[in-house]
Design a protein that fits this description.
Strand content: under 5%
CATH architecture of the domain at 196-328: Alpha Horseshoe
Number of helices: 15
Structural class: mainly alpha
Largest sheet: none
Helix content: 40-55%
Radius of gyration: 30 Å
CATH topology of the domain at 196-328: Serine Threonine Protein Phosphatase 5, Tetratricopeptide repeat
Number of strands: 0
Distance between the termini: 105 Å
Order of helices and strands: HHHHHHHHHHHHHHH
Shape: elongated
CATH class of the domain at 196-328: Mainly Alpha
C-alpha cells in the first residue's frame, strides 16, 4: 500500500522555502521593450505580407523560457485576433494561415476578408479560413459585407452562406438582399433559396433611389414569384403583443403593402425622390389600392403629391368599376 504521507513528508515545506527574488523594474522594462518590438514586427508583417518576418516573431518567442517567454506570449496573444483581421483585409492568405496556426480565431478575419477589393485574394483568404474550421453558419451577415461582389457572393453561397441571413440556430441577422446591389446578385440569392414570401423583399426594393434600378428589381421579383399585394411582416423574434413587437410593426410601416411603402417613400428616408414612376408601375402590375394597413389606411391616405394622389384615384375608380361590373 503506498505511503502517501511519507511521500508528502519527503518534500520540503513550502512555508519554509525562501521567497523568490522580486523582478527588477529594469528587467520588466527590458522584456516589455522586446515585446513591443515583436508587436511592431507582427503589425508590419500583416501589412507587407513578409512571412519570414512573421515567423521570426514566433521563433523568437519559442527560443525564450520562463517569465520572459510568458510575458512575450501574453503581449502577442492579445494582438492575434486584430492582426488576423488586418492580414485578411490586405488579402494576405499566407500571413492569415500562420496567425491561425498560432492561435488566432478564423471568425475574426471574416468581415475584413469580404472587404478586400481583389476577389481572388479574398477567396484565397477564405479557403485558408475554411481549412482552419471556419463555419460559415457562424457568420449570418457575411453576404451583407461583400461589397456587392457577385463572384464572392457566389463563392460564399456555394460554401453554405445562408441567403436569408440565418445563423446555425435558425436566427436571422441582417437580410442579404437589402445589400445586394445588382440584379445578378438578387437572382443568385433567389437561386440559392432566398425566402421571397417572408422577407419584405419587394417592399425594401421600393426604397432604391434610382427609378430605373428600382423598377427593374421590382420586375425581377414579380417574375420570380413575389406577390405584389403581400403585406410587410415583422422579421425579428419579438413576441406579438409586446412593446418590442409594436416597435417592430412601426418599422414595418404598419404592415402595409409595397404600394403603401412606395407612396410613403418609406425606405427613402429624407431623400427627395419623386415616387410617381414606381407607384405607377406597381399599379400597372396589379397593386391593390384598397388594401388597408394596420392603421386602417390605404396607400392614397399617405399620398403627399397631387400626381401620386391622382393616379391612385384613377386606379381606385377603375377597381371599383371592375368590382361593380363583376357583381352585375
Amino acid at each position: 500500500m503506498p505511503h502517501f504521507h511519507e511521500a508528502e513528508n519527503s518534500s520540503p515545506d513550502p512555508a519554509c522555502s525562501p521567497l523568490p527574488e522580486p523582478l527588477s523594474p529594469t528587467f520588466l522594462q527590458e522584456i516589455d521593450n522586446q515585446s513591443r518590438i515583436s508587436e511592431e514586427k507582427l503589425e508590419l508583417a500583416c501589412i507587407s505580407g513578409d512571412l519570414e518576418l512573421l515567423k521570426s516573431v514566433f521563433d523568437h518567442i519559442a527560443s525564450l523560457s520562463g517569465f520572459d517567454r510568458e510575458r512575450h506570449e501574453e503581449h502577442i496573444t492579445r494582438q492575434l485576433d486584430s492582426r488576423v483581421a488586418m492580414a485578411a483585409g490586405n488579402g494576405l492568405a499566407k500571413i492569415v494561415e500562420c496567425l491561425l496556426e498560432h492561435g488566432a480565431k478564423p471568425i475574426n478575419a471574416v468581415r475584413s476578408a469580404t472587404r478586400h477589393k481583389d476577389t481572388d485574394a479574398a477567396i484565397r483568404v477564405f479557403e485558408v479560413l475554411f481549412e482552419h474550421d471556419l463555419d460559415i453558419k457562424d457568420c449570418p451577415g457575411v453576404l451583407c459585407q461583400t461589397n456587392r461582389d457577385e463572384a464572392l457572393t457566389r463563392y460564399l453561397l456555394s460554401k453554405g452562406a445562408d441567403p436569408n441571413g440565418h445563423n446555425q440556430h435558425g436566427r436571422r441577422g441582417q437580410l442579404p438582399f437589402q445589400w445586394c446591389g445588382s440584379l445578378a446578385i438578387v437572382s443568385l440569392l433567389i437561386d440559392y433559396g432566398a425566402d421571397l414570401k417572408h422577407s419584405n423583399f419587394l417592399h425594401t426594393t421600393t426604397g432604391i433611389v434610382d427609378d430605373d434600378a428600382c423598377i427593374a428589381q421590382m420586375d425581377l421579383l414579380i417574375r420570380r414569384g413575389v406577390d405584389i399585394n403581400d403585406r410587410a411582416e415583422v422579421l425579428d423574434d419579438t413576441e406579438p403583443g409586446t412593446p418590442q413587437h409594436e416597435k417592430s410593426l412601426l418599422r414595418m410601416a404598419e404592415a402595409g403593402t409595397a404600394l403603401h411603402w412606395a407612396v410613403r417613400g418609406w425606405k427613402l428616408g429624407r431623400r427627395n425622390v419623386d415616387v410617381f414612376l414606381r407607384v405607377q408601375w406597381l399599379l400597372e402590375k396589379g397593386a391593390d389600392t384598397e388594401i388597408r394597413d394596420n392603421g386602417g389606411l390605404r396607400p392614397i391616405d399617405y399620398a403627399t403629391s397631387k400626381s401620386v394622389r391622382d393616379i391612385l384615384e384613377i386606379y381606385s375608380v377603375d377597381e371599383g368599376q371592375t368590382g361593380s361590373n363583376a357583381e352585375v
